[in-house]
Amino acid sequence: MLGSTLFFGRNAHNHSRGNWKLPTWFAPSPEERLAEAHGSQCGFCTPGFVMSMYALLRSSKQPPTKEQIEDSLAGNLCRCTGYRPIIDAFGVFAKTDDSLYTASPSESANGKAICPSTGKPCLCRNETDVNGNESSLLSSVKTYLPSSYNEIDGNAYNEKELIFPPELQLRKIMPLRLNGFNGVRWYRPLKLDQLLQLKSCYPEAKLIIGNSEVGVETEFKNAQYGVMISVTHVPELHTLKVEEDGLRIGSAVRLAQLQDFLKKVIAERGSLQTSSCQAILRQLKWFAGTQIRNVASVGGNICTASPISDLNPLWMSTGATFQIIDVNNNVRTTVAKDFFLGYRKVDLKDDEVLLSVILPWTRPFEYVKEFKQAHRRQDDIALVNAGMRVHITEAEGNWIVSDVSIVYGGVAAVPLTAGKTESFLVGKKLDYGLLDEAFNLLKEDIPLAENAPGGMVEFRSSLTLSFFFKFFLYVTHEMNTKGLSEGLDVANMSAIQSYTRPVTTGTQGYELVRQGTAVGQPMVHLSAMLQLPNFPLGSLVSSSQKMCPVLTILGQLDSSKKRILGQLSMMGRFLHLMSLLVLARSLESLWQTPMIMQKLLQIK
C-alpha cells in the first residue's frame, strides 16, 4: 500500500484553498477511494481488490479503461457490497469523459450543488460556499477536487516509490536448492540441460510454475511431493515464436502472456490464418481470473489433464501437436488427441518434459469455435466445454466438409471426440438437412450415464447438442458473408454472437437529511479506514549478512515514529496473550488463566 499512497497522495481537499490547482497525477489512492465510496464493509475481500487495482495502475502505460478495470477485478469476489460501490470507487482512475465529474450537478433542498459522482456537496460548483463556509463543510464531508483523470500514467510510479531493491534486480540469477520440512527438496534450474539432469536424478519430481494447481493439491488434497522443480527460469520453456507452420508456444508460458501474444499475432496476420488463435483467445477471456492467468502456464494446464480444462478440447480440435523431450535430449512429437490417456493421466513418462505446443495456422475456409457453459460467466469451472473445427472445400460446384473435428470436455474422464459424427459429416454439404442425423450420432458419441459425476445429466447432454447447433450456425453465417451459402434466420442470429457484457453501471439514491449525528448521513464506517491503513507497517531492510537478527530499529527514528512502533509492539503482545487466553479457555485449562491474566496486567 505504500507505493500507491506515495503516488496518489493524501486528502486533496486540504490543498483546495486559493487558486492552486492539483497536478493531474494527484488523486486519491485506491484504498482511500474504496473506503470513501463505501466499497469496504466486512473487509475480507478488500486487500484483494486494492492490490488488483494497484497492479493495473502500476503496470499500465496508458490510463486504464473501465473495461480494463472490471477485467482486472474479475478474480475477486465480494459478498457484502454487490460490487457497485467498488466499481464506483475505482472508476475515477478510468480514462473517461471528465464531464462525469464536471457536468452540471443536481441541487439539494438547500440549494447547494450535489456532485453527480459522489452524491456529496460539490466543491467545484460551490466555490462561493467553500470560501465562506469551508471549515464547516469540510468538517462534515470529505470531497476531492475534480482532477483530469485522463492523464494518469501508471509509469509515473517508478519515480515515486521503491518497487524492488535495485541491488537485487542487478543480482545475477543463480540456480537454487532449498531443503524444506519432512525432507522436501526444491530446485530452480536456469537451463534446460539442468532441468533434464534433475529429472534424470529425480524422475518422479513435480514440476512447478505458478503453483495454482500443486498448491491446491498439497493444501487441500494432502498430496505429498518429495522433490519439486521450479521451471520459471528455464528460457527454452518460455518460447513464443511465429513459424512457417504455426505458432510455437513454450510449456512454461503464462496464460496472460499467451493472451497478449495471440492478440499481436491476430492483428498482424489477419483472420484468414488465425481462426484457431481467435478461438483460444476468446476462451482465455473466461479462463479463471486475471490473478490466475498471470501465474498459470500452458503446460501446467495441459499436464494436469483436468476433465473440465477449457483449453484441452481446443488443442485437440485445432490439430495442435505437443513436443516432448526426455533426459537424453531426444524429442518426440505427439498429437494432442493422443496425449490424454485417462483421468489426469497423460502420455508423458517420468523422464520426459513437455517442451512446447505447436498450434497450426488455419487454412482458407477453415473455421474454429470455442464453447463453454458454467454456472456463472466469470471465474467459474465449466459444466461442459467444447472445441470444434471444420474445413470446407469446393467439389463439383458444391462446398462440402473435407475435414472436421468435434471435441467435448466435462463429459468424461478425458476430452471426448465425436468420432461417428465426424465421419458422417465428411464429404457432405453442411446444411439443415443433416442436423437430425448429426444430433442422433452425437448422442451416441457423447453418452452420459444417469449417475455421471457432476450431475445435471439431461442439461449437460442438451448442451452437447446446443454447442454443435451453434457451431453449424456460425459456419453457415461465415460462409454466407462470402456469398457461398444462404443467410441465417433472424431468430438464430443471436446464437453466433460472442457474449459481451457492457460496463457495469449503477446509482445509489439517498436524501441528505441529518437526524442526530450520523443517522441519515452517508458516512464511511469506522472500520473502513482500519482495514485500509494510511501508514506502512513494514519496510525493506538491507544487510551485508544473511540470516542475522535485527538488533535495533529505533536509533534513527524520531519520537513520533518511536511512539507508533511502541504502540504496535504493545498491541502485538496484548493480542498474543489474548490468543493464549482464548486457547486456554477452549482447552478448559483453567489453571493457566490466572497466570495469563497476571501477564496482561504487567503490560504498560
UniProtKB/TrEMBL annotation:
FAD-binding PCMH-type domain ranges (all copies): 179-364
An example Gene Ontology molecular-function term: oxidoreductase activity
InterPro entries with a match to the protein in the record: 2Fe-2S-bd, 2Fe-2S-bd_dom_sf, Ald_Oxase/xanthine_DH-like, CO_DH_flav_C, CO_DH_flav_C_dom_sf, FAD-bd_PCMH, FAD-bd_PCMH-like_sf, FAD-bd_PCMH_sub1
The entry's keywords: FAD, Flavoprotein
Cofactors that this protein relies on: FAD
Alphabetized SUPFAM superfamilies for the sequence: CO dehydrogenase flavoprotein C-terminal domain-like, CO dehydrogenase ISP C-domain like, FAD-binding/transporter-associated domain-like
Protein name, entry field: FAD-binding PCMH-type domain-containing protein
Organism ancestry: Eukaryota, Viridiplantae, Streptophyta, Embryophyta, Tracheophyta
